[in-house]
Amino acid sequence: MMAIKASIAIKKTSQNGKNKENGTINSVHRFISESLSWKLAISFSMSLILAIMLYPQILHLAPPQYSVGSIITKDVQADRDFLVVDKAATEQKRAEAVESTKPVYDYDSELPVKIDTALSKAFLDMRNNLKEDSAKTPDNAKLSSEEAKKVFEDLLGISLTAAEFETLNKKGFSSDISNNIVRLIYYTYSDKLIGNRDTLNLHKSLGITIRNIGNQEERELNDLSSIIDAGKINTIVRENAKTIFKTEYPDKVVVSIAQKVAIPNLTFAKNATEKRKQTVADEVKPVLYKLQKNEMIIREGEKITPEDLDKLDAFYKGQEGNRFVHLSIFSGIFLTIIFLSVIFYRMASVRFRSSEAVNTDLLFMGIAVILQVILTKAGIFICDSINLPYELDPSYVCIYVIPFTAATMLVAILVGRNEGLIFAVFSSLVTAFLFEDTASMFLFSLIGCAIAVHRIIHCERRSAFFKTGLLIGAVNMVTIICISLLSGKIFTIEIPVDLAMGILGGLLSGFIVSGLVPLFEFAFGYTTDIKLLELANLNQPIFQELLMTAPGTYHHSVIVASLVEAAAEEIGVNSLLAKVSAYYHDIGKMKKPHYFIENQSGWKNKHDDLSPQMSSLIIISHVKDGCELAKEHNLGKAIQDIIRQHHGTGLVRYFYDKAKEDSKASGQSVQESDFRYPGPKPQSKEAGLILLGDIVEASSRTLTNPTPARIRNLVDSRIKQVMEEGQLDESDLTFSDLKKISETFTRVLTGIFHRRIDYKKPSK
After folding, report:
1. Closest of 354, 353, 361, 348 to residue 410, by C-alpha
2. Does residue 634 contact residue 525 with C-beta atoms inside 8 Å?
3. Alpha-carbon distance values, 339 to 44, 351, 545, 574 (Å)
4. Residue 29 to residue 18: CA distance in whole angstroms
5. DSSP conformational letter for 598
6. Which of 261, 527, 544, 616 could pair covalently with 655 via S-S, beta carbons 3.0-4.6 A apart?
7. For the whole model, what pTM was predicted?
8. Closest CA to 18 of 540, 550, 736
């Protein structure tokens, strides 16, 4: 017994230092007031800091307005290295690129087929008309010659002389004539390009790009001598007729119609050419030259030249928009206040959440977003400082290695998933302002943050940070590919480097968060799953003290933990939080252990000498004592909340009934509220589980013959009683959950109270 007392004394001595350390943290927590003024102060302070970080140019005056030919009034010297666009050289480079762009000509390889189809249809229609006219009665007048000629010309889109049409009409628009015309057309167009020579001569030295309008295939042609002039097409058709028909020269109408329907199959595509030249001009990168830090841009008294104006514009580009300084400041503050207001509304919507907890979360998230801006700015600075090959721009290549998801992961782990998602939107929006391509960077950051919140929410091992970082890196790679596809830069040399930077950025986020989580967890009193695993160790000093001072409560807590852990897994809630909270839910009984029946070893009950009111006060006070011990040992808000809620607003019925009996004799009234726990009722499924497990386990000790049927009846009746009292109304537990809880409690208790063999005493 002396050894046990000595062990307890040593453990209490070792805890004194830890309690002092925890006292410092608790003083920080107490410093965060519960008043609304503190919420406003936190919101405004964080908003102001963030606005200043996002708009560093507010420390400078608005840039002066310059114009070519004006006299500069003071020396202007570069305070940093920066690049200037050489507009003259850039324009010359663009003009050269445009001049070297070959014009586009559309080539219709299917033109002979189209003419063939039109001729065949026109001749067939006219033959059909002749047949119909011959069948008409005198009452029905035939088509006049002029009308028939007009119809035929409309079908072919050409004009005929009266003699030509009369020849065709006399021969009944014979198919032989149309076939001869088609033969002549096919021969004329056979592998020949026919175009306007006047236009082609303008591009003779440069060559042309021929685009087949059928399949959109392109080829370049530098030697234009093989292209036939469209002005000579009549002569070509006539000569081709001699070659094809030889001695059997066809009717003149065949050659005449062939000459009229033959049109150039190579035409200048003006719109396509202009569009291509514009694209080439847009793709020309500007010619830059560098001005170094401390280099004199222009001296006082000098006249501003166009080149000087370009330098001044580039120099003041960083201060762009300073004439809207005040608007920028208030916009940044307003944006941040809106975010914090949304977070506050989300937290306030929870039925029970202390004002101190809300203030702590607001302060933490304000610090988190500032941390994210610092990380992003540091990444941008490092990227700009890296020397890369000329083909790679460090400002765009290295930005993907910045840990955009770090702060969001911290919020998701320490505060919650819903708050993490809201924070992800705000954090992505804030960091996107730091880049020129705001939309792409917002999308890149938001997608990574959303994946991080979903993946990191329940991390029970340190390796979870690395795995989450690897997943974020993979998602970053996919996002980079999508952004590159949208911008048309998928086949550039920067893409492999971008992908490597993307996966490194995800891993870097994981490493940073793994190092910062313990720091913020300690400073703000948060409880993560990793900390819960540490608290689940039964060798914790506070648990060993519970074993020594209140062994019955210790045994009760272990059994309750077994019940709620199994039930939590069945209904899909955080089983680790439920189990660890069950371990610590009754630690307040350590202050007065012998006033609780499970710790009373003798027949003497200390409550026999107390009034029911005093006994009830002692019993109820173990909740308050437990919360104080949880704060002293830095168990975290989640466990403190469950300790506070694990009896809800339940009635200490035994002493209440006893007080009512005593009141009959004394004539004094009894207030039921004096015998109720202060609450609140369980605000989560885990807290509701602890309440049910506590009641069921305590009731199970009263069973004299704990058969499975009796255990089931006991469990069902206790759950029904708690539900009817309304203690679970705010816990979000459903009837389906309660059914699963009942079955699980019955199974676990049946295993605990299983029948044993009655061993007979050995015979002598």
Report:
1. 361
2. yes
3. 11, 21, 45, 28
4. 17
5. G
6. 616
7. 0.54
8. 540
Greater confidence, 303 or 317?
A: 303
For 46, 160, 423, 453, the CA distances from 459, given in Å and listed in that order, are: 29, 88, 19, 11
pLDDT at 54 over 80: no
**Closest CA relative to residue 81, chosen from 295, 387, 398:** 295
CA–CA separation, 737 and 744 (whole Å): 10
Asked if 110 and 214 count as a contact pair (C-beta separation under 8 A), the reply is: yes
Peptide bond preceding 103 in cis form (omega within 30 of 0)? no
Q: Angle CA(188)–CA(193)–CA(196) in degrees, nearest 5?
A: 105
Task: Indicate the range of 349-358, 388-397, 567-576 predicted with least confidence.
Answer: 388-397
Structure tokens at 18: 């830890």
Residue 416, token pair as written in the block: 């919650």
Q: How many contiguous H segments (helices) and E segments (strands) does the chain have?
A: 30, 10
Q: Enter the tokens of residue 31.
A: 């410093």
Dihedral in degrees, nearest 10, Cα atoms 415, 417, 420, 422:
-120
- Say which residue, 21 or 384, is predicted with more confidence: 384
Handedness of CA 58, 64, 68, 71 (dihedral sign): negative
The backbone region for 191, taken as left when phi is positive above 0, alpha when psi lies in -120 to 50, beta otherwise, is left
C-alpha–C-alpha distance, residues 645 and 102, integer Å: 80
Closest CA to 644 of 690, 602, 611, 600: 690
Q: Where are the beta strands (DSSP E) in 651-713?
A: none
Between CA 479 and CA 485, with CA 480 as vertex, the angle to 5 degrees is 100
Q: Do residues 528 and 459 touch, judged by C-beta distance below 8 A?
A: yes
pLDDT digits (tens, 9 = 90+) for 315-366: 777 444 444 444 455 555 566 666 656 665 555 555 445 556 677 887 888 8
Which residues does 543 contact at the CB level (< 8 Å), separation at least 6? Answer: 537, 554, 583
Residue 474 and residue 437 in contact, taking contact as beta carbons nearer than 8 Å: no
DSSP annotation string for 218-269: EEEE---TTSEEGGGHHHHHHHHHHHHHTTSPPPHHHHHHHHHH---SEEE-
Q: Which two tokens stand for residue 374?
A: 């610092």
Provide the H-helix boundaries in 398-528.
Answer: 406-414, 417-432, 438-456, 463-487, 494-524
Strand partners, 320: none
DSSP symbols for 647-665: TTT-B-HHHHHHHHHHHHH
Neighbours of 484 (CB within 10 A): 18
CA distance 351 to 174: 95
What does the pLDDT look like over 174-184, one tens digit per residue? 888 888 888 88
Identify the DSSP state of 593.
Answer: G
Query: CA 260 to CA 257: how far, in whole Å?
Result: 5
Alpha helices in 100-144 (DSSP H): 111-134
**Cα separation, 315 vs 309, whole angstroms:** 10
Distance from C-alpha of 465 to C-alpha of 447, rounded to nearest angstrom: 18
If residue 727 lies in a helix (H) or strand (E), which one and from where to where? Answer: none
Residue 466 CA, distance from chain mean position: 19
- Joined together, the tokens standing for residue 110 give 């299917």
